[in-house]
Design brief:
Layout: H1 6-26, E1 43-50, E2 53-60, H2 67-80, E3 96-103, E4 107-108, E5 127-132, E6 135-139, H3 141-146, H4 151-161, E7 175-179, E8 181-186, E9 193-196
Antiparallel strand pairs: 1-2, 1-3, 3-8, 4-7, 5-6, 5-7, 8-9
Domain AMMECR1: 7-195
Organism: Ferroglobus placidus (strain DSM 10642 / AEDII12DO)
Protein name: Protein Ferp_2479
């Protein structure tokens, strides 16, 4: 998968912020289309952080929409539909840093012995998607680094995110997928946009 340039990353974050603020101000979704990589179908998550604390995070794990469209929809959803938080108010956007993570398509991890799964997961590189029946949960690559998870704990926390038992990854009918992400984020609200090193998760 072709990586985004910093210039593209800046456009991605600015598009996410514009989408949120326009929606909060008018109740309408912007209909902006960008060229180049933004015309490609990509998975993407928009994360909102307020005073370095999570304020919302929603996205598309799979490349089912044009990147520009996926950014707009995930950004609005992160601000208004994350069930863990009340909807963001327009005036809050002065205190919120916008972060966009572009994803590679998830790849299923195959092992003969389920206890070998942690060896297939590289903390600081991989994000996780776990599915079992109607349940699914996803954690972005930066989460494991931010919380200092090892591979086994990362699997456990993704199971919990899916609403499953913490050791569900050991069960044969649980599907485990890995993906990678490229992160662009504001250093401060409306501030400079930089590419984030996942291994350090520092701006």
């Amino acid at each position: 998968m072709k990586l985004l340039s910093l210039e593209d990353g800046v456009k991605a974050v600015k598009l996410a912020r514009e989408a949120i603020e326009t929606y909060l101000r008018t109740g309408k979704k912007i209909n902006k289309r960008l060229g180049g990589v933004f015309a490609e179908k990509r998975g993407v998550f928009t994360t909102l952080n307020k005073h370095r604390m999570l304020r919302g995070c929603i996205g598309f794990p799979y490349p089912i929409k044009r990147l520009d469209e996926a950014i707009i929809e995930s950004a609005i959803a992160a601000a208004t539909e994350d069930p863990r938080f009340p909807p963001v108010k327009l005036e809050e956007m002065d205190e919120i840093e916008v972060e966009v993570t572009i994803l590679t398509p998830p790849e299923k991890v195959e092992v003969e012995d389920r206890t070998e799964l942690p060896k297939k997961i590289e903390v600081g590189r991989h994000g996780l998607l776990i599915k079992r029946g109607f349940y699914s949960g996803l954690l972005l690559p930066q989460v494991a680094v931010e919380y200092n998870f090892d591979a086994e704990e990362f699997l456990t926390q993704t199971c919990l995110k899916a609403g499953l038992s913490p050791d569900c990854w050991l069960l044969e009918d649980t599907e485990v997928y890995v993906f990678e992400g490229q992160i662009f984020a504001e250093k401060e609200p409306r501030g400079e946009v930089v590419e984030v090193d996942i291994k350090s998760c520092k701006l």
